[in-house]
UniProtKB/TrEMBL annotation:
Domain Carboxymuconolactone decarboxylase-like: start-end pairs: 141-225
Domain of life the protein comes from: Bacteria
Coiled coil feature spans: none
Pfam families linked: CMD
Signal peptide boundaries: none
InterPro entries linked to this entry: 4CMD/NDH-1_regulator (IPR052512), AhpD-like (IPR029032), CMD-like (IPR003779)
Gene3D superfamilies: AhpD-like
Protein name, per record: Carboxymuconolactone decarboxylase
Source species: Duganella aceris
Disordered, as annotated region: 1-20
Amino acid sequence: MLASATPHAAEPIKEKSSMQAEHTLSASRLAIAPIGAFAATGNLPALHAALDQGLDAGLSVGDCKEILVQLYAYAGFPRSLNALGELMKVLEERKGRGIADAPGSLPGPVPSGDAMFALGTANQTKLVGAPVKGPVFEFAPAIDQFLKTHLFGDIFSRDNLDWQSRELATVAALAAMSGTEPQLLSHLRVSLNVGLTPQQLKQFIQVLALKVDVGASQRAQAALEKAS
């Protein structure tokens, strides 16, 4: 990626048809729900099965890696590292069964230093829909710097996973955890800003109810009703 402040995102995972894309999510995107949720809560046996099913649904190895790497920003390094270790086990098992999973793409180059801060600020503004300010950022400017430079710069500038998929993974993780309702609401609003429809998000929430737990789906549904 060029060292500029122009927001950039990879092309979304392709849906089956343009008509279907208006109303439903692909199997690969729906598979993000249990992966993000179980990685965030540290349920490794359930994550193991979810990753296996996600690869069967069309996620690449790179997609899964990127989802689990990104989630450290929301669930912490221990959960992310454990989840990546579980992905390694899944891939080894699948290799033993003769399955050759698509590797996926690597991220393009990204800027550094002040250029990364500028790019992260632009990415954050585009995702949220307006410049982000608030008392907490004035109280602790360091957290604002970290969010802009690292989360929205380093992570959201990586173009090997599109913004819609990143937001779905984040929504799943935040919905699965308790005490993160304000952030869940914020990311559901961002999900709408990047082009996901309320109907697609309702479908995603239904998967949380079916494959994760009712509590996660209820938190997400309550936030979606406020966000829509």
